[in-house]
Amino acid sequence: MSLELILEPLRYEFFVRGLIGLSLIAVLCACVGTFVVLKGLSYIGDAMAHAVFPGIVASFIFKINYFVGGVAAAIITALSIGFVARRSGLKQDSAVGTVFVGMFALGVVLLSQTRTYSVDLAHLLVGEPLGISAGDIQTTLVLGSLALIALFALQKELVLVSFDETEARVIGLPVNALNTFTLILIALTVVLAIQVVGTILVVSFLVTSSSTARLLTTRVSAMMLWGSGIGVLCGVLGLYLSYFFGTPAGAMVVIVNTMVFVAVLLLRRTRSDPARV
Amino acid sequence: MPNPILPPDRFPADHSSPLVSVSDVRVTFGETVALTGASFHLCKGEFVAVIGPNGAGKSTLLRAMLGLVPFTGQIGFSSQLGAKPLQRISYVPQQQSLDWSFPVTVWDVVMMGRIRHIGWLRRAAPTDTAAVSDALERAGVSDLRRRPIAALSGGQRQRVLLARMLARDCDLIFLDEPFTGVDAKTQDSILQLLERERISGKAILMVTHDLESARAWCSHILLVNRTVIAAGSPALVYTPANIEKTFSSARLEP
Asked: Model pTM?
């Protein structure tokens, strides 16, 4: 690929904004996604993406910034997952599946009542990195930085809770609060990521680069670092490919991420497999 | 097996004030009674083996004492243990209960034992690094410190968990089946390590299946099958009647 081809789309501000937005979110997803992968919470990420949908639609109806509605719905969701898990006799996956896919249905019904904004809202289903505004980038930067600062501040406690929850309880850590905090971080990340990859693909974006990094590293911080690098590279590559082939950008990014994961899975030396004993 | 360090009776336990008093403890899971009427004392300088058949409630007893399962009855802690006595207990879980493919090194796991010493929002201080080094040394896994835990053998895993326990530096040590997946040589060195801890004034409670090593090494035996069947020195407790009562009636209705 010649330099001209690389530079050409950079003339467009929307493309540059897309690159910046995607990169920020890729880093956030890799760091939060590391804990999603290690704790086996992918299905919660998926549920979260569905559950915040009515919040986002409602924000459009009431003409407020959709981060506000999304984050509010996300926090309510995170707290209720903990509540449902503690109160119901149901296994957590059933409880989560029942309650939060129901919320998605509510979002779809709300969506059908809005006519003016339906085009924008369609983006929320599949995402549109090229539609990111300067304001979206600012919001992402502020909320994402806060999330990452909180994550790094509590990293050693969160790692212990993921690795050995019993030990965390024995030494007197507030395990339930730390788990709820993790859910809120996942929720926030999902809301921020929905703008670029949409509700349907957000889980892939949340966990794929961390999963790839999981195959290549043997320490949690290395997993976050490699996941961030892989996520940013895949984001940039996916956006360029979608520009040249005229394909949906969010989906393209997810495809590149998935292909890199599969390539790493097939190419790595299985003898040094960190995940196998 | 002779005790190569010193026989337990050379360091008599301090019975004047037990560190933990368990009294009439009952644990139920739904309709199932896991444990009932369990009572005993744990004193400084005691090395107690908890022995009984599978499903006898041995692990449940430990978990109740750790505050991990709800119970009725009383578990009292000595004021010597301070305001938060539960945090003076270091717990070594069954190694199968952990995910050994988790991406951490041996050093990382042992450093987890220092989390409360380090405190919230802080990084490890030189004292924590020194404590981890020392714990690795004492558990005999110094040379493995950079190794991912996925690359450890069963015996090495157990030593790493012991090192984490040592790094926590607690007054009470609870262990659940520390000899599972461990060869005879490692089992022996684990027992020596624990005996050194006992001599330094710790109280140890260890769930095990191994009656013979418990007789050779432990100061006290607790026979458990849904309740405490007998408690005392090995010579006192290991009677045919007690063993019979503990093991031949796995469905004992207390």
From this structure: 0.91
